[in-house]
Amino acid sequence: MQWCPRRVRALSYTQLAVFDHYLTNPFNDWTDDHVAQGFAWRPGSVSFGTLESSGAIWVEVFRSRVLDNRASMAERIIAVPFTVPEHGEIEVASISSSVVLQLPSAEYELTFEHGQHSEGTMWANLYFRRVESPTTPRILRADAELKMPPVFVMNAEPA
């Protein structure tokens, strides 16, 4: 089910973030390890690295839909655990723009599917799939910039 219609965002600082709407300092500080794995994660907040440092990005958000990895045209696909808090308000944001969305409080696997259209415009799909317990982070598809770590770094600091 599509949950948030396609939106154009002004992207900056090479990241698209998803976080608890009420989290203080919601954006994450990136280390070299975070850059290599493609995301910076801490409870309540995840920032995904994008293919370009700035520019327009088309973003769509889905819930209860499973990504078909084999059919995807994405260059980068990453799945992480994400807990939606009791109040249910999450935010999808870049540094300069955001949208607040409502989702039932639960554990989810959040999948970031990311690529570029032939003319160079970036796009990203975010999939929230409800799960019984927190999932393990995974890189499902890696572009040349990502490096599969032996252990994922799951302790980002607030920016």
What does this structure look like?
The protein is mainly beta. Helix content is 4%, strand content 52%. The chain has one helix spanning 32-37; strands spanning 2-11, 15-20, 28-29, 39-42, 45-49, 55-63, 76-84, 89-93, 98-102, 106-116, 122-131, 138-141, 157-158. The strands form three sheets. The chain has a six-stranded mixed sheet, with no helix packed on it. Strands 4-5-2-8-9 form a five-stranded antiparallel sheet. A two-stranded antiparallel ribbon has the order 3-13. The chain is globular. The mean pLDDT is 90.
- The CATH topology is given as Substrate Binding Domain Of DNAk, Chain A, domain 1
Q: What amount of the residues lies in strands?
A: over 45%
Question: In CATH terms, what is the architecture?
Answer: Sandwich
Task: Report the mean per-residue pLDDT as an integer.
Answer: 90
Largest sheet, if any?
6 strands, mixed
| Fraction of helical residues | under 10%
Low-pLDDT segments = none
Number of helical regions: 1
Principal-axes geometry comes out as globular
Question: Which structural class matches the secondary elements?
Answer: mainly beta
State the gist of this model.
The protein is mainly beta.
Helices and strands, with pairings:
Elements lengths: L1 E10 L3 E6 L7 E2 L2 H6 L1 E4 L2 E5 L5 E9 L12 E9 L4 E5 L4 E5 L3 E11 L5 E10 L6 E4 L15 E2 L1
Parallel strand pairs: 6-11
Antiparallel strand pairs: 1-6, 2-5, 2-8, 3-13, 4-5, 7-10, 7-12, 8-9, 10-11
